[in-house]
C-alpha cells in the first residue's frame, strides 16, 4: 500500500472530527417530536395513533434500498466488491446522521429546536440517496476519506436547495425527480468532471466484472425494484394519491424491465443479454414516473413513461456515456446521467404536462389537495367552499396550471445549476492530496484499502493463470 493512500491517520481523524461535531450539534439542537416525547402523552393518547405506525413501513423499505439495494448494485466490479458495498455502508450511515441536522436547521430557524421523528429519518434517507447516486459517478476512483468529505459537503448544498425550492418556488415532485434524481446526477457529474483521469478513458485492467459480482449486482437491482414503490409514495398524501403512486411506479418499472430485455438482445451483436442493461436500465421506469407519480396520468401513461425512460437510458449507456468521457471530460462510472439525468428530465417534462392537463373534471375537489399550490389563498371564499368538501384543506397560492408549470421549469433549471456548481466545488476539495486518493493504477482495487482474504485473486494472479492455461 502506498503511503499516500494510507487510511491509518486520515480516516480515524476525519471520523473523530465529524463525530465530535455531530454529538455537539445533537446535544444542543435535537430533541424528540410530539410522537416520541413522553411528556406529551397522557391517558387519552391512543398509542396506535402514533405516526410511527404510518411512517415506519416506508422508513424500513427505504432502509433496504439504501443499504442493501445500493450496496449490492455498486458491487459489480470484480476486484471492487468490498469497496462498492462497504463504502456505500460507511457513506450512507454518515449521510443520514448529517442530513438530520442539515435538513432540521430550517426547522430550528422557526421554533428553536430540531424535532426528531421517524418522518425526519425518511427525509434524511432521501438526502442520503442523493449522495449515493452521486457516489456512482466516482465509484472505484475515490477513497473513503474523499467520500465522507463529499457527503459532508453535498448534504448541506442539497438541504439549502431543497429548502429554497420547497419554500419559495413550491413544486409538485412526489417521487423526488427534481430534488433527488436530477440534483444527485448533476452534482455527481460536477465532481467527476473535476476528478477527471485521462488514463481511464482507454479502460483499466481492473475495470471488469465477474460471474459472481454481476449476480450480486443484480440482487441489488431486485431489492431496488421491489421497494421502489415505497420510495416514490412515501411522502405523498395518504389515500388515493399514495395509492396511485404505488400503482404507477409498479407499472413504470414493469414496462421498463421488459423493454430493457428486448433492447439488450436486439442491440447485442450476438443477440445475447448484457448484464449491465439488466442491472441498470430495468430501473429507469421508477425514475421516469416520479414527477407525476401521484397524479391522474392514467395507467397507460405510466406504462409509456416506463418504455420512454428505459429507451433513453439504454441508448445513453450505449452512446452518450462514451461520448461524454471522450469529449466532455465526464467519466460517469455507473452511468448516473442515463439512469437519473435523462430519465429525470423526461419525468419532469411529463409532470409539467400532467399539471397543465389537470382539471376539476378529472380530479374533483381533490385537485387542490394534489396540487396544493393551486388551492385558493387564505380569505378566498372559494377556499371555504372547498374546505366543506375536503376538511383540513390548507390554503394555497391560487396559482393557475400555467403558472405552476412555469415554476416547475424554474425548479428544474435551478436544481441543475445549483447541483452542478456544488459538484464542481466539492470536486476541487476532494482533489486535496491529503485525502488518500488512489493512483490511476490502484483504481477499482480492494487491496488498496482492505485486508483481503486469502482467496482473493488479484489481476496479476489471473494473468499468471491465463498464461499457464495457454501454455498447457
Automatic annotation (TrEMBL):
It comes from the Eukaryota. It is a multi-pass membrane protein. GO terms for cellular component: plasma membrane. The keyword Oxidoreductase does not apply. One of its GO terms (biological process) is ammonium homeostasis. It is found in: Cell membrane. GO terms for molecular function: ammonium channel activity. Pfam families: Ammonium_transp. Signal peptide: none annotated. InterPro entries: Ammonium/urea_transptr, NH4_transpt_AmtB-like_dom, RhesusRHD. Keywords: Ammonia transport, Cell membrane, Glycoprotein, Membrane, Transmembrane, Transmembrane helix, Transport. Residues 24-431 form the Ammonium transporter AmtB-like domain. The chain crosses the membrane at residues 12-32, 56-77, 89-110, 116-140, 147-166, 178-196, 208-228, 248-268, 280-297, 303-320, 341-359, 405-429. Functions as an ammonia transporter. May play a role in the elimination of ammonia in the gill. PANTHER family: AMMONIUM TRANSPORTER, AMMONIUM TRANSPORTER AMTB-LIKE DOMAIN-CONTAINING PROTEIN. Belongs to the ammonium transporter (TC 2.A.49) family. Rh subfamily. This is Ammonium transporter AmtB-like domain-containing protein.
